[in-house]
Amino acid sequence: MINPYCLLDLTLARSAANGHGGSTVDVLIVAVLVILGLTVLLFAGLVLLRMAGSSRERRILEKKAHLSPLVYDLLTEDRSAGDVVATLGSVVPARDRRVLEQVLLENSRFLKGREREVLAEAFDRLGYLDEDLATLGGHGMVRKAEAAFHLGTMRCERAAPALAAALSSSANPEVQFSCLNALSKIGTPEALRTVMDYLASSPEMETLRVAEVILERKQEFTGFLEQWLERGEADPSRLTFLVNMAGAVKDAHTVPLITRLLRHEDAGVRARAAFSLGTIGDYTACDDLAGAMGDGDAGVRAEAAEALGKLQCEAAISALERGLIDEDVSVRINSAISLSQLGEEGRTVLESALLSVEEAVREVAAEALEAYGPGERDKREGS
Predict the structure, then answer these.
(1) Quick check: 133 and 162 in contact, CB under 8 A?
(2) Where are the domains of the chain?
(3) Is there a contact between 182 and 148 (Cβ–Cβ < 8 Å)?
(4) For position 217, what pLDDT does the model report?
(5) C-alpha 261: how far from chain center
(6) What pLDDT, on the 0 to 100 scale, is given for residue 380?
(7) Between these two residues, 136 and 23, which has the higher pLDDT value?
(8) Does the domain formed by 127-196 have CATH 1.25.10.10?
(9) Cα–Cα distance for residue pair 366/235, rounded to 1 Å
(10) Which residues contact 224 (CB under 8 A, 6 or more apart)?
(11) What is the residue-averaged pLDDT of the chain?
(12) Cα dist. 374→42, 344, 366, 368, 379 in Å?
């Protein structure tokens, strides 16, 4: 291997032998050789680190391959958690403690019922639960998020208060999401209430991540949504959140509660109620949505017009026809699009609108017929 210090000594000796005339060139040569030598040393060091890391990963995989069948057999042989812990303690050396934790977490993905309960109790008795709880109260963001993931994977009910505390105190998005996900998996009423309260007060949370948390426990969350919508919320932002969630999970049981909100004093709540009714897809909301076409707020009328098309509310054609002459362009556009989706009768209304004296009405009718007519719809469905 090239030694930069030897190169430096040789170059300096050469410089001394040649006198001072070539000192500038010699200095440049020294610099280049030193940089070259250091680069070689750095590359060699990286190679050694990579080899060491690969060797360590290989040993871990070998240990997991050895432990996984043993752990699975213990958990599926109708043993008690105490027996499982005692057996693992006698055959797994202390140095492999982290490997055992990984194997236990992996087993949680496909064990159910009593076997999962034994696994969770063994995880607790082996001390992993307390370790994760301690980490959750620490400072490292990555480790806190990982600890929350472990606690959720094992569905440790004892961890719910600590997860709620970490959720409220952390500003890190990864920690927040890991805590929300863990609480949703734990699934106790208190845990789910914590999730809903937090999401309702945090509209900045990413929509896709919120959906991931909610949809994974859809059945449990829908019960809470119905309860809270029945109870009502004084805060419009929280009420809007509940309405949005009911639409996201398409809970038909909430339709009577949401239609009631079409008469709420807050226009934002009324608009989101109309939107969610269209998303849920329950035809019984048609009459209420048709009535919302007369709302004093343009945003509500626009959402109602779109929802009527989604629900294929043929009885609302007259309300949508009035929407074509609405003063708001969004209402006119949504009404025209919805009419184009309501069969021959809806298209007849649009064709009649082509003869309107109002240019704005003629424009939206023509655009809807061109973009959403039967020929274009067949093309889209065939593509």
Answers:
(1) yes
(2) 127-196
(3) yes
(4) 72
(5) 28
(6) 40
(7) 136
(8) yes
(9) 42
(10) 189, 192, 193, 196
(11) 84
(12) 67, 10, 14, 11, 9
